[in-house]
Amino acid sequence: MNEDLKISEMLDFSKQLWEKNKNSWSPMSPEYGKDFILYMIEEIGEVIAILKKKGCDSVMKDKEIRNHFTEEMCDVMMYFSDTLNRFGISPKEFSEIYTEKFNKNLKRNYTQEYKNIK
Fold first, then answer.
1. Which domains are delineated in the chain?
2. What pTM did the predictor assign?
3. Are 77 and 94 in contact, with CB atoms under 8 Å apart?
4. Rounded CA gap, 116 and 3, in Å?
5. Contact 16/83 with Cβ under 8 angstroms?
6. What CA–CA distance (Å, rounded) separates 68 from 46?
């Protein structure tokens, strides 16, 4: 069991699953990327349904509900990884841009920005 997955491992898992199922799954190419974004959104809907039907407290306190919630979050991440792979985004590229965006967000004043929205 892996205690803390790395982005590279998640992308490798995605490729392994695709390799096993490539005869029946869509190609690992950008034209299909939007489909996997839509699948990811569908999984996010399942996450929301759990929160809506069971509530945050149940996710925090009920082991079975928490496992189901976490499994659906994993589905979101799996489709996210599939999308990154279809667009050929490497772990290095993703990590660099993620870190840049994080640092940019650290400097933002969200309260002020939202006040200025008209």
1. 7-18+28-90 (1.10.287)
2. 0.89
3. no
4. 43
5. no
6. 10
